[in-house]
Every structure is written in C-alpha cells, then in structure tokens.
Amino acid sequence: MRLLLAMMKHETNTFSPVPTDLARFRAWGMHEGPEVVKAYRGTNHPIAAFIDLAEAAGAEIVTPVAAEAMPSGLVQREAYEYLAGRILDALRDQGPFDGAMLDLHGAMVAETDWDGEGALLERIRAVAPDLPIAVTFDMHGNITRRVADNCTLFNCYKSYPHTDMYKAGEACGRIFLDALAGRVKPVMAFAQLPVLAQTLRMGTADEPMHSLQAMTREEETRPSILCASLFGGFPMADIPEAGISVIVVADGDRAAAADSCDRLLAAAWAQREEFVYRHEPLEQAVARAKTIEVRPVVLLDHADNVGSGGTADSMTVIREVLRQGLTDVAVGAVRDPEAVQAMMRAGVGAEITLDLGGKTDMPSIGATGEPLRLTGRVRRLSDGEWTVRGPMYTGSRVTTGPTAVFETAGVSIVVTSLHHEPWDAGIFTSVGIDPAHCRYLLLKSRIHYRAGFSPYEKARVTLDGVGVTTSDNAQLTFDVLRRPIYPLDPDAKWPRN
Ligand SMILES: [Zn+2]
Predict the structure, then answer these.
(1) Interatomic CA distance for residues 226 and 418, integer angstroms
(2) Ligand 1 center to residue 180 CA distance, Å?
(3) For the segment 9-57, what is each residue's pLDDT rounded down to a tens digit?
(4) Dist. CA 30 → ligand 1 center (Å)
C-alpha cells in the first residue's frame, strides 16, 4: 500500500493586515520529504497519527510537505502555489497511490481562491480522479460544498482548545484504512447553518459547545455512524461560506448520516443566540478585574488574539491596565522586533524608554497603529526557542524569535519578534516568569490559552480592546459573506424550518 501524507494549514483572517508568505510558514513549521516524519512523529498533530497508522499498516508513505503558519491575512499566491505544488507534484511524479491522508485547517483563504482547501482538493482530484482522500480539519474550518464533494471522508477536532488533534487524526485514519481494506464504505452527509458564530463562544468547557460536541460523540455510538463533526467555523473571514457546518460519515447508510446531520444542525440552530458575544466596556471590565481577590486572574485581550490573525501589537488593553494601576501583571506577548532590538542593545538591567507596539495599521477596522511610550527596565533577553510541554501542540518546538522581557510599573511584558499566541505556559517560563506567582496574566488569546493556563487560572476577565480579531461583528465589514446569516441578520431562517 502506498499512501500520500501531507499537511497544509492556515486559519485566514481576511481582516488581518499580517501578511502570509512562505516565510511565515517557515517560522512556525514547514518541512518537506522525509523531514516531515522526523518533525511530526510523536507530536499532538493529526499528521503524527497518520504516520503511526500508515507505518503500523506496513504502508509505504510519501510526505511531500507539512506546513502550518500562525493565523494571519490572505495566503499569498506564491506560498499557496508552492505548498499545493509540492502535493500535486508528488501525486504526478511519485504515484500511483492507494490513498491520501491530509491534515488541513478548513479556513484557509488564498489570494487566488477564497476556498483554499476546496481548491486544493479539487486540484488533487483533477490529477487523481479516483484517489481516496481522508482529511482532518480544525473545528474552526469554514467547510464548503466543494470540500465535501472532493474527498472521501473527513473528521474534525472535538475540543477547543484543540488538545485532541492526534485523536481526531487517529479516528479519521482508522476509518480510512478500514475503507481502503474494504471493511467499511464511507458515505457522507454535509450541511451548513446560516450562523456566524464567535470563536470566543466556542470553548468546549463552556456551553453551548460542551453539549454540542458531547452530542457528536453520542452520534458516533449510533449504528453505522463512523464519525460526526460539528464545525463552529471561523467568523473573521469575509467569504461566502463562513459559519457553522456539520458533516457525518456513515458506513454505507446515507439515511443514517443525513438523520444524524439533521439532529446536530437542529441542536446548533437552537443554540444560536449562545454563539453571540456580549460586549462590556473596557474601562468597566478592567475596574472589575482590580477588585478580584484570587490570583492569578487571566485578562484576555481577545480582540488582538494572535491565534486568529491579531497583530499582537495593539496596545489598547495594556494602556488601560497601566492607566488603572494594576500591578504584578505578566503580559504574553507583544510583537515588536524593533523594541526587542533596542532592548538587546541596551542589555539586561538597563533602563530604557520605548515606543512599544502599535507598529501595525489595521485598515480593515479603520485603525492606525498607536505605540505606547513607556519607560522601564530590560529584565531578560532570550532567543525565543522552547518546547511545548502543555497539552496543545505537545512536543512542538516554538520560536518567537529574539525575545525580551520589559518591566514597567509592576507590569512585565514579554516582547517577541514573531507572532505567537500564548497557549502554553512556556511563553512565560522560558523567560523566567512563573505564572503561578503573578496576580494577573494578560494574554493576547481567546480560548486556546486554556490549554496551558487552566492549571493557573483562578478567575477570568474578558477585555474588549481594539484589533482585527474583535468579537463585535459591527466593527467588521462583510461584503461577500452569504446573507441572510445570524446574527448579522437577526431574522435569518434555517432553510429546513
Ligand atoms: Zn481552531
């Protein structure tokens, strides 16, 4: 048996000004050929499960590319063509294959095609029309009809933070190998809901996702159902097919797949109001944080969530925290390579005045970058390299580029050269900050921080700053998103009702 295994992942925020070129893929993870196996074996990625299963089945594997970039703006043509080209070339030159197992995201928007995954799968099918294809997607995938029509089966993560990436890959891979061996015959039912859900309302420890994902697991115990996926979708994408979708794979029984799909859609539709985030004024929320006695309190700068395409240098929330005099705060993290260089020149212990952050304009929300002038001390310098020990991306090597800790008025700010969402405590421990001993942990994150920080978190305050990952739809302009869609159109109807 010969199998093609590849990964090509990006969550594209069409409002983000952060460019997505090949360098951005290289900065987080991009490997080719046999290097793919070396880089991902033993990690908590779907492709690691594909590798384990293929090897256990005695298959010969070809791994043209495995690449992921942290969320940001449109994937540039050159990057998209390079990565898709590696996969298509392998199909043409190293085939024939018995099947392909792909680790994709589902919310990739390329400059050349708003449906990055649909376009990739369509091109794969053009080269190899009968190739069985299994795909794992992120729960935030905006899954399209074109995707569903161009693969054999797919599965998505059931937890957010995504601590079950390997598990999702393993489930998908097992069904696929069973299908290749003729033990099962996958048939899929796919449908979308007209609901643009906020990712801030999709954490699986909370409702409504807790019950909805429990329901997908329950559906999987029904006769003939092989796997069931409920996608929350990714709302920071002005593309026609953004939003919630459901896919159910059954063993030969189309009616069972369709029934299961309908039950999940109906349950998600009934919960649609719960997917809307309610705003609290920033000043009021910071004042509330000040009165909380327990520690540490997590402060979420969710409008500048790097893991959804934030610029990581919006200073609105940090400014308000300093203005209201909160102390014993650790901030993870502001991206400002110029400030890091200035701190490296000054050296550890030096007092320095910086125009920190605010280097990136955000034209999609009509905001220009506003640095914050601060005087403080350089506390630590680092090369920004560490290994993830927490439950998300476990075992992956992280690089935030040259990194420094700047301390001002009782606030320690980790300043990095690359964008990085703090979903692992390593962002602090790698630079000598113990999160357990801080009063406040100010994180440019939304839900993923829970992977690494839930052991520390005693209370949480969500802070509405300024940024391209705002949860306030009114700040974003949707030109091509299909309408009507809830909650942009409060009277939107689910067509089956
Ligand atoms: Zn995700």
Answers:
(1) 40
(2) 29
(3) 999 999 999 999 999 999 989 999 999 999 999 999 999 999 999 999 9
(4) 19
- C-alpha 230 – ligand 1 centre gap (Å): 12
Calpha distance 157→456 (Å, rounded): 24
CA of 328 to the centre of ligand 1 (A): 31
Q: Which of 201, 199, 220, 203 is nearest to 264 (CA)?
A: 220
Q: Looking at the predicted structure, is the pLDDT value of residue 190 above 80?
A: yes
Give the residue extent of every domain in the chain: 2-275, 282-470
For 2-275, CATH number out of 3.40.50.2300, 1.10.260.40, 3.40.1180.10, 3.40.50.150 equals 3.40.50.2300
Q: How far is the CA of 125 from the centre of ligand 1 (A)?
A: 26
CA of 160 to the centre of ligand 1 (A): 7
Q: What is the C-alpha separation between 488 and 493, in angstroms, rounded?
A: 12
Q: Percent helix, strand, coil in the chain (nearest 5)?
A: 30, 25, 45
CB 17 within 8 A of CB 363: yes
Q: Tally Cβ neighbours within 10 Å of residue 159.
A: 20
CA of 58 to the centre of ligand 1 (A): 32
CA pair distance 380, 221, nearest whole angstrom? 52
Element (H, E) at 480: none
Report the DSSP beta bridge partners of residue 441. 298, 330
pLDDT of residue 240: 98
Burial of 455-479, coded b for 16+ CB within 10 Å and e otherwise, reads: ebbeebbbbbbbbbbbbebebbebe
User: Confidence class of residue 497 from pLDDT cuts 50, 70 and 90?
Assistant: low
Q: Which pLDDT score is estimated for 441?
A: 98
Model-level pTM? 0.94
351 DSSP β-pair partners: 377
